[in-house]
Amino acid sequence: MTITLDAPRIVTAHPLMTLKNVSKSYGDVRAVRDASVEVFPGEVMGIVGESGSGKSTLLRMMNLEDTPDTGSYTLDLPDVQGNLFELDRFARRMLCATKIGIVYQNPHLGLLMNHSSSGNVAERLLVAGERRFSVLRDKAQIALEASEFPLERLDAPPIELSGGMQQRVQLAKAIALEPALLLLDEPTTGLDVSVQALVLDTLKRLQQDRQITMVIVSHDLGVIRTMADRVIVMRRGEIVESGLADQIFQDPQHPYTQQLVHAKL
Amino acid sequence: MTLVLDVQSLTKGFTMHHLNTQMAAFNDISFGLHSGEFLLLKGTNGAGKSTLLRTLYRSYLAQSGAALFQSSHGVIDLMRAADVDITHLRRSEIGFVTQFLVARPRVSAQALVAEPLRQAGHSADAALDEARRWLSAFGVKEELWRAYPTTFSGGEQQKVNLARALILPQKLLLLDEPTASLDVQARTALVARLAELKSQGTAMIGVFHHPDDVSHLIDRVIDLTPNTSNPEDREDVAY
């Protein structure tokens, strides 16, 4: 038994991103059940849960790669209106290129592995309509620099780079157009611990310097604890608990969250 | 003196689902705290002193009761406030001081200390100057200011943590044994800073292993040992 929380009173800004009552089934499997999420401007939201909990499905919906059976998705931005799940393919692609950035666990999903790293970043700018070569090159370089990518390797294709460097190219591509929302799907899973710390540090730095709103999915509670202001806990497609990151880790309420936190510590 | 915090019938316990048990922490606690007041929590181990601090900071969720906080946005019940509102208050009005530093890789000591000021809108240069002043006051050697505290000794980390936690004056300060294992210079600097903040109106609730360090600051004592939780007036204590 705990106290039910009120709606925000001090923070008067609207949530930047709102998912409302989103459900999705694949055949008989209900991947996401009635999930609602609000993320406020400048906030870092963490989503944790075991494999198959629906956390990655939810993130793919936020990137408009997947459409739920029911539910709505809105972004509170001046030139974006309505339920984004109702947009056609072209409008989705444009919106994703200009307003949303994503970093996948698997760099093959986000990058052309045999094209140059700078070309990968510039491609994102091309999709958004930039055609001037010098602008493309400069902007790509700025984004790679912000992602702390070594500039002497600008022309190297991702296939020749280490895992940590590939994630930096993905990150540069994701932030090149200064998106309002940055989505991170297990961004450091599979990296060496030391490389992971560096990539997380870069993310933290970017977040503080640019106040980017982020949603980060990870099964690694340490990553979420380092990054997130608030945390959502998912199990079998449902959000079982949400709260301030320190509260979720120090005073978890749901039996599943307790199990998850105790397993980690 | 304005009432900064009005705690009403606060109750906290923990449900341990895997053991199917409830563990009570504290029950039906009520007290008021005015600006510039220093309240000492005492009680045996396990009486719930730290738990009360963490509940007020909202790292723990209360089971029932209220904690009405006089924020600059009006009165708000900390036990019921939305998570984003709590995040906002933690950046601007409510501080928590422990003995442990949460260091981050590749962030220098001075940057870590300056961060609360940066978040409050101070310029980078002004925040850094102030950060260096506090690092120096707490006795952190100048050679270490630009280094990364992840590799510092426990004592040095604790000093960086205190400088960071106390750099920005706040309305309400929660102190969880900040003096434990500090050397004399740092302890003197800490007590002096607390006295300064208190005179500027910061209300404080503290748990101290050796309250002698701060005895001249204490206005009231609450004993959380079960069945003795009556506030005891400390007007008799010399200021």
List keywords for this structure.
heterodimer, A: 265 residues, alpha/beta, Rossmann fold, six-stranded mixed β-sheet, three-stranded antiparallel β-sheet, 10 helices, 22% strand, B: 239 residues, 2 domains, disordered C terminus
Describe it.
The complex is a heterodimer of chains A (265) and B (239). Chain A has 265 residues and is of the alpha/beta class. Chain A has a domain at 17-111 and 180-264: P-loop containing nucleotide triphosphate hydrolases (Rossmann fold, 3-Layer(aba) Sandwich). Chain A contains ten helices and nine strands. Chain A has helices spanning 55-62, 89-99, 107-110, 117-127, 133-146, 163-175, 193-210, 221-227, 245-250, 255-264; strands spanning 17-26, 29-39, 44-48, 70-75, 100-103, 181-185, 213-217, 230-235, 238-244. In chain A, strands 5-6-7-3-8-9 form a six-stranded mixed beta sheet, sandwiched between helices. A three-stranded antiparallel beta sheet of chain A has the order 2-1-4, with helices on one face. In chain A, α7 (193-210) links the parallel β6 and β7 (213-217). The radius of gyration of chain A is 18 Å and the shape is globular. Chain A starts with 16 loop residues before the first strand and ends with a helix. Chain B has helices at 49-57, 83-92, 109-119, 124-137, 154-166, 184-199, and strands at 3-16, 21-34, 38-42, 64-71, 74-77, 94-97, 172-176, 203-207, 220-223, 232-233. Chain B is globular and about 50 Å long. The model of chain B is unreliable at 231-239 (pLDDT under 50). The chains are: A alpha/beta (265), B alpha/beta (239). Chain A binds chain B through residues 1-11, 40, 43, 197-198, 200-201, 204, 226, 229-230, 242-244, 246-247, 250-251, 253, 255, 258-259, 262, and chain B through 14-18, 54, 58-64, 71, 73, 76-77, 79-89, 104-107.
